[in-house]
Write a structure and sequence with these properties.
Number of domains: 1
Radius of gyration: 20 Å
Structural class: mainly alpha
Order of helices and strands: HHHHHHHHHHH
Strand content: under 5%
Oligomer: single chain
Length: about 260
């Protein structure tokens, strides 16, 4: 119980510190701006306006949330170590694993608070373009789409915290951004490498496919827009996959930070 209180205290302080970061509000304003922009684009493009608004609004949440997760995640540990703010905390009877997990929980909590604000704006926008005054999508499908998005953002934050546990904040930002982008292209990467005549290249494609996070699996926006079934066994499998990958990454992060020599 004492360990849990210490972890939650670190998370709470992380949230308070993150909410004072001005860049966070810039990303939030950018995300909400994209959501509002979807109304303009829906009027100048062909197609169903509600689908365009939904696509752009949820995509804005995804982009804004990912940017927040990376920016806050790389500062969570690396930034604290570089500014020597981590030393007084680690000097207390707190394990490094508690410190890392507490920082991660604080980052995710901050991201989720801002995502909730963007989700409110997106939901209001989608509702205003829905037909006959009723919300366009079923509550279960809409919430499932947002839940998978939240899981994806939690995984992106875990990636950022992982790199920040053993590198500088600059390197962590570059590596986290690169891995996040690669995680959206794992299928295509495996496909193109699989066309090679070299068995080693094909094996490399398979290895990257199974090692890198597969963020496409955690997306249901396309199904939502086309009103396809979302609550399927595939969604459950994707949730299990994301949760297991996230847990493994946090364990690895804790192990890496435990072995890190702090100057």
């Amino acid at each position: 119980m004492t360990q849990l209180r210490a972890l939650l205290a670190i998370a709470r302080v992380t949230v308070h510190e993150s909410l004072r970061d001005r860049i966070l509000y810039g990303v939030l304003a950018f995300g909400i701006g994209l959501i509002l922009l979807s109304a303009v684009l829906s009027n100048v493009t062909l197609g169903w306006p509600v689908r365009i608004v939904t696509d752009l609004s949820i995509s804005a949440i995804s982009i804004g949330g990912a940017a927040m997760a990376i920016l806050l995640g790389v500062r969570a540990v690396a930034g604290e170590v570089e500014r020597r703010l981590a030393y007084p905390v680690l000097a207390r009877p707190i394990s490094r694993a508690q410190y890392v997990v507490g920082k991660y929980v604080g980052v995710v909590g901050t991201v989720y608070l801002n995502v909730a604000l963007m989700a409110v704006a997106a939901t209001a926008m989608i509702a205003s373009y829905s037909h006959d005054g009723a919300f366009q999508y079923t509550g279960a499908a809409y919430l499932a789409t947002l839940a998978l998005l939240l899981l994806k953002l939690a995984l992106i934050a875990a990636i950022a915290v992982f790199f920040s546990a053993f590198t500088s904040s600059t390197v962590a930002f570059i590596a986290s951004t690169g891995l996040t982008l690669a995680g959206h292209l794992t299928g295509e990467l495996r496909f193109f490498l699989g066309k090679s005549e070299s068995a080693l290249t094909r094996a490399l494609g398979d290895g990257l496919y199974y090692t890198l996070p597969d963020f496409v699996t955690l997306e249901a926006l396309s199904k939502l827009v086309h009103e396809q079934e979302i609550l399927t066994s595939h969604t459950l499998a994707a949730t299990a996959y994301g949760t297991c990958y996230l847990a493994a990454l946090l364990v690895l992060t804790s192990m890496v930070f435990e072995r890190r020599d702090l100057p």
